Amino acid sequence: MKKNILKVTLVAVFALVVGYNVYCSQKSAVISPLALANIEALASGEGGGGNHTCYDTWRKAPDDNSLAYWDWICQECEAYWLEYGRNRSSC
Predict the structure, then answer these.
(1) How far apart are the C-alpha atoms of 49 and 60, rounded to whole Å?
(2) N or C: which end of the chain has fewer CB within 10 A?
(3) What is the DSSP letter of 49?
(4) How far is CA 11 from the centre of its chain?
């Protein structure tokens, strides 16, 4: 009887350890907006000429929007966090 209780206890402990490790490995990494802006700046290249592909129709994203993306708007020729943009042009 004691052997069965010991076996069940060991199996339960093993299952808990494995489950906890699986749980910890599934956490997604959170990237700050500053890091995303740096990635976007690096991906856009270093072409110096002042020509940027931008949007004529756009909506700026609120500060807490995780689905926003960093892009240019044509009216100000500045980059902002946008929720969406249409009618691509250049500035």
Answers:
(1) 25
(2) N
(3) S
(4) 38
